Amino acid sequence: MGEAEVESQQVHALAISAARPSKHLSLSPSFQRCAYSSWIRENIHKRECCFFEKGVREDTCRCGYLKTDHVDEAIKPEDFTGEPWDRHRHIREVPTDAFGDISFGGLGQKTGKYVRVSTDTSPEVLYSLLTEQWKLSPPNLLISVTGGAKNFYLKARLKNMFHRGLIKVAQTTGAWIITGGTHTGVMKHVGQAVRDYAISSSSMQGQIVAIGVATWGIIHNRDTLVHPEGCFPAHYLMDVKDQGRLSCLDNNHTHFLLVDDGTHGRYGVEIELRSQLEKCISGKRIGNKESGVTIPVVCVVLDGGPGTLDTIYNAMLNGTPCVVLEGSGRIADVIAQVAGLPVTRVTIALIHQLMKRFFGQEYETFADLKIIKWTKMIQDIIRIPQLLTVFRVSEDSHGDVDVAILQALLKASRTSESLGIECWKRQLELAIAWNRVDIAETEIFTEESQWKSSDLHWAMFSALVGNRPRFVSLLLENGVSLRDFLQDEETLCELYKQLPTCFFLRKLAKRVHSSRRSGRRQAFAIRARVHSGQGEMISMTHVCEEVRHLMGGFTQPLYPPSTMTFHFNMTMEDTSLSLSKSQAGSQASLREDDVAQRDPGRDLFLWAIVQNNKELAEIAWEQCRDCMSAALAATKILKKMAEEGSDADEAEDMRELANHYEKHAIGVFSKCHNNDEERARKLLVRASPLWGRTTCLRLALEADDKNFVAQSGVQALLTQIWCGELSVDNPVWRVMVCMVFFPLIYTGFLVFRRDEIIQREAERKEEIKTVETVTGSTLRTNSRSFDSHSLRRLKTLSCWSRLVCLYSSPQVKFYWNIVSYFAFLFLFAVVLMIDFQDTPSAGEVLLYIWLLSLVCEEVRQLFHDPDGFGFRKKAKMYIHDLWNILDVLSIILFIIGLAFRLTSRLFYAGKIILCIDFVVFCLRLMAIFTISRTLGPKIIIVRRMMMDMFFFMFLLSIWVVAYGVAKQGILIHNDNRLDWIVRGAVYEPYLIIFGDFPSNIDNTAFDIDSCTMNGTDPLKPKCPVLNENQTPAFPEWLTIIMLCVYLLFANILLLNLLIAIFNFTFQEVQDNTDRIWKFQRYELIKEYHSRPAAPPPFIIFSHLYLFIRNMVLRRPLSKSKEFNNELPQIEEEELLSWEALMKDRYLQSTEQEQSQSMERRIQDTAQKVSTMTDRLEREEESSSAAVMERLARLEEQVIQSTRALQWIMDNLKSQDLATKEALTAATATDETPDTLRNVSENIDGFHVNARQFHYPNSKILRFPVPEEKVPWEVSFSSYMPTYYTSEDSGDHVDGSESEVLDNYRNPGGRTGIRGQGSLSHLGPNLNVELVVTRWQDSDRSVLEYLAVWDESHGTLALPGGPVQSADQLPVTLKRTMGKTLYEKLNAKVSEGMKVFEGYVDDCRNTDNAWVETTVLNIHLDRTSQVMVDINNMMVSSHGSLQWQELSGKTRLSSNQRDSLRQVAELHNRKF
């Protein structure tokens, strides 16, 4: 099992476990800190001196630390007495005492993490520290910034470009930046770039990781970082002024690895560990995947000295690309100047000149041998152009620094050994990991690269899972087919497995867990189940169930039941075989469904929507076939998830995305309606096989998409359904007249829709004939043949059909029900006021029958479910309707009143209940106004104001009760009659608001006869407390003041507040009432569309007919096509194609609107101004640079003229021969360019491998030999090569015997080392390489060669080895090939063709010993005996012998590749 799969399963196991109640508390910060400290002490160590020995000063040790800094055991050691101090022996490792968080203080309170580590710390441990303990995400790129350690000046433009480019590449690619970590030189510039990013970016963006690897012993104020238990945080003071020879840490880096070797004041201690760490990181794979590329490393160079040159040289030898910034100074500028030159022109004199120019006074300290060595290193550097990139500010090709860095990495991957699709795949994988579409567009998807859809499927999967929407678009543009990509359903399953943490994943985990616990077994599964780490499974069955839950139970499963996996390329017959026999419906319709439901655009769009990913969803929506249904389904799913989610921010994002797709649906439908109204209406009510066989209109209603439903096209459809077969242009009064006098419909008094269609088609046909008569063309007639045929099929309505269409129209049903309802209310009122007897009269019985018909109709509405919602959903929808609540309430009250009325004891109570019920029935009458365009919106406003009034009454009741209780307590003493208490405390204060002022609070209006003294009269209120004069004793001034204050607040303040609230509500709702009314209008239209034609009480006969038909006869309901229409397959495809065209037009118009918007224009103008400014600055800098170059050339010419004049003067003064000889020697030593040029012209190319600094399998370093000094003919007075002869060599020659060595001189020139080296003897060492070839088949299409396994290098190679004579094979091949095969091939050596013979550039060559190789090609016939022996030997060799295709993809050494190239040319084959 792959590592990526294990990781994915672990993530999903965690997601599933999140659905369970947590049994453990989260770890506290103090516990985490304790665990971190324990890990540090176990794995990280520091180094300290354990033997104090006096150094330069009395109190200073040889290690550089003071005596007081040593432990007591180190001052008087017993183990090392009498020994001299040794850094390797007297420095030991102990657990580190400096780690934790570092705080630099100042503005922003910058904090980071740090640790003091030993130089011997394993890089794997450091990587674990960075990723696991410090919680850093593994990088997609490692940027090692090196250069000048001292402060240097950068031009403002270059500085800005470096800062911006470095941060951009780190931010977009998720890179780590590694520097020296101190507040000087290039590290300071990197820190400033990180600081600028932190200031300009928001806290929501990712943090830039800048890791400083510094030497512990040179850190100033490092004592503040030391604490045995760690510092959380350590307050570090940056004291640059008093740092002396030490350095301060840079406060803008985020992490610090402080490398300790136990010494103080030694710079460069961290270099080795830093290189090891970089190498370790470069060996990790991007994203910790088992498959994929390793983390790339790039070296960015600014300024720098000789040490930087060593760093660049070693990095490039290890295959690390380097980016050098021209203009940053010193060694960077030296390399930049010679980067574009041929190696032969990079001479010692040129390097002298450039060093003097860019190093200034520092150049005087450089020795000649050092410059010779640096010349050789620079030549080797520019000899690897694929690893060297020079960023020049004056050039437009690189753009910014970030582009140059990424281009350098891609250029490095285009080596000769990795050509073809593998090379492009690696580059594309890097670009996706970096999320740099611009790089992929310019560097990868070019005319050179040829991609198939299948070659990019892995890239599409990575882009989707990694949330790279721009890459998804790029891949789709470059040939990726979604149909091919999602052909295997395992791919879709893997996408759901890789969902990021989101609400849908949590819901899915809960569903999986609950199904696991209940032990349910699904009836079908679209794909094989995927087991998580805990044995639980996530399948497409669960996805299907969860999506159906979000969309609603009225939809069918998006992934229908099947017993096998469906593929996109399945034929209709194959698909029919996989259908389940238990499914309802015909097999023909199911076949159509299965083919249609495998829409890859739908699957991808749904996957993006459930994770609330706007960018990916937008791309997938453009690929959907049924785009309008997809947009409306997305609004339903998103709003449902927002409703169920607990995260307010996430829910708000979902609502915003839902509104976005509602606008998309509106835009597409508007384009469709403007183009063809009839087809647009079909789109609204057509059943979509892709989205659960529901309709766009139903989805919009369920998603509460009021804006969509309020469109004129949707309302036109509803109006058409409302009118039925009647024309929408008929006036209402004509319809009402025909309702009573129906014979008028046969006179043309009413217009039917069928008649309109026939008339319209006839008029169109006449127009076409007229045009054809004028133009004489018959083309139009042919194009309308189908319309003529359809016109002949349309027949006028018969008399009976017209009558049925009239009374089955929802509009007519509604009017009849209004008349019936008024009649019902009239009868109800008559019964209550006139004819309410002990024994029910005939009118009252008719009223009961009438009500029974209403009850039956309500029951029918409750159980009538044409959309397939289910009883639970249907009941919920029924209860949520206000008018249905009034219906149920009125029926319940009527039944209660009827039950009371039939009993003698409760007869009058029953009548009261029925009277109240009459009020409810009258309120229900308001429902008839909802169809009115004028009164309908006003009812919505009234409902909203009722809610406002409810909250207002709550506020008013506070004042009423407060005043009423206070007044009642002051006036009345201990009244125990509850009814009079309520009247005095609540009723009377409430009436005061409407002007009914009380008389008992004023003595002047007091009447003792109007009240009772002791409260014994139940019809009179109790008198207030009286005094001796029989007058009220309450303080009159207080009650009047209380009344005035009460009236002030209640009548003036609160009532005016109520008016203001109503006014605000009216203004707020007025703009939306029309939209809300249009949305609610649908339910009324649908209700009367499905309602029987007869009004109550005659409707009871229709109910009886429906009951017998459905319940007794069990006949299925006839489905209406008005709200859900099943289209034939051909018409469905035509309609979807037309919809796709309208969608493209909508997207195009939207893009044009955005491009013409004011914001886009301002943005484009600003970008153009910025581009012009950059170009002007670049031109200004290039012109000034050109002037400086001319002045430098002029200065050089003046110097040369001065030297020539001085030479002439010296010759005139002294004409002796010695001076001339000296002059000749000096001339030869100066190495004029002309002489070097002549030598280089004579020799095509010098050996390179033979001049590598490190001699193989030894610690010997060659003497540097620049390109110009290779030929023996060129004088090289300072040439002092090292003598080396390996102990394993055959013949040994004493180094003092130079006469013997002088007899053997390498024909390729100087190598930098004398002696025999690791070769067997001095002089030429013969070597034979055998290229055994054959044709792979009889067609001779593929040429193959025989390769052997080289155990020493672990690679394949050509069979060969050292020989004494070129006429025989190497003896070493006998062991590999076997004795028999070796002898047979040896016999064919004479028949072989010499492909090459001569000197070979081998890394083992020396000045006195070298390798000469003979390459032989032996071509074998497939039927020869030797071929039989080779094949037998290959079986027994277990891979030591292999046939390989001879092509450019062969991975061999450069010399052997050249040999194969010549063999291919020999056989007329392309290499």
From TrEMBL:
Q: Give the similarity note.
A: Belongs to the transient receptor (TC 1.A.4) family. LTrpC subfamily. TRPM2 sub-subfamily.
Domain Ion transport, chain residue ranges per copy: 814-1073
Q: Lineage, please?
A: Eukaryota, Metazoa, Chordata, Craniata, Vertebrata
Gene Ontology molecular function? ligand-gated calcium channel activity
Protein name as it appears in the record: Transient receptor potential cation channel subfamily M member 2
Membrane topology, record value: Multi-pass membrane protein
- The organism named in the record is Lates calcarifer (Barramundi)
Instruction: Give the residue range of the signal peptide.
Output: none
Q: Where is the TRPM SLOG domain?
A: 113-338
Concerning InterPro entries, the annotation shows: Ion_trans_dom (IPR005821), NUDIX_hydrolase-like_dom_sf (IPR015797), TRPM (IPR050927), TRPM-like (IPR057366), TRPM_SLOG (IPR041491)
Q: Which keywords, in A-to-Z order, does the entry hold?
A: Calcium, Calcium channel, Calcium transport, Cell membrane, Ion channel, Ion transport, Membrane, Receptor, Transmembrane, Transmembrane helix, Transport
Q: Does the keyword Aminoacyl-tRNA synthetase apply?
A: no
